[in-house]
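Memo subject: From amino acid sequence to discrete backbone structure tokens
Keywords: amino acid chain, backbone geometry, structure tokens, three-dimensional fold.
Body of memo: The sequence and its backbone structure tokens, given next.
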Amino acid sequence: MKLLIPAIALLSSTVMAADLKFNVEGRFDYANSTVKHEFATATNNFEEKRSEFDSNVLRLNMVATINENLSARFRYRFSTAQDAASKNRDLSFQNVDFFFIDHKTSMFTTRIGKQSQVESLGREFFISATDYPTTAYNSTSGATGYIASNTAVYNTVKSDADLYRVGVSLIFKQLEDQTFTISAFNPAKSTTYTDTAGASNDAKNSKMGLGAYYNGSFLNKMIQPTLGYTTFGIAPETDLAGAPNTVSASNKLMAAGIRSEVAGFVIDADWKQYKRDNTSTATSTADKTTSIWANVAYTWDNLTPFVNYINDKYTKSANNLTDYKRNAISAGLQFKPFKDNNFRYQVAYTSDVKKIDAATGTNENKVTAHQISAGIKFDI
């Protein structure tokens, strides 16, 4: 926080001649949840109950239009704990989501800096965190609540590679309502390893991330397809014997989504799959996570009811005790009291069931969660 104010002041001073727009967006909720954990041996079963207020989204946005061909974007999150020292290899603060410059030419736009590739995760990543139907718990505040706001693919990629990365993108928009993007970026917080064996026999393939993406619109927004393919190396791991591995490996993320806006309805849906190479042996198969995500909302005057659905399937190559299937469904209502202001109330109910392929009594085989939440969203 001590560095944030000088950083904003410096940024503002460099673009004094620019058209600056600031806004603060956030969400505050009260949530009550019950989570039941079941085991093959019934005596190991237990239940969690949580009731608390939550402010899991609070962030500052700035957009600067310097001239007709040059612009900038900055966003800082106040709702995530900041380490005393940056652990990112690019030295950026983990609370900084965006800090990039766009240079527009007649052929394409070059984007340089910390950015995201929203198409990489289908339609789900297009949705603002302030609009998720559930509110995620802080795992450090008491018992571990199970409720998750996102799909397993989204959360796993976020853990492995982060969602906001320093890199460069070329954005092509030659055709109206059709955008093609190619990106290169740092895929993870750890260093990019390049040697293949080395004296210490370290693993070596946390290589540069590469992605190709498409986002389009047809028939007056009735059909809006999204496609994405991303590949990046993974950080060094150890094999089953505990020795550093030397196997070249990479992660692959594929996503396809669609949005449709018609007759007051907004329908979003996507399919995505994330394959994470198991690097302990050269012949091992990839751990695979597949997710289906859908959200249907209908706006009538100042009311917007919605239904959200998540289906996850995880298959681990080496140990099927952690394979699982998950189904989560949420239903809620948003109320916007002021037509010209982005402020609203929301209430939602979520049912979330995860079934795990556990073969022994000491392994958990089912988690059933229910949550009721109510709160506000603002963008001012």
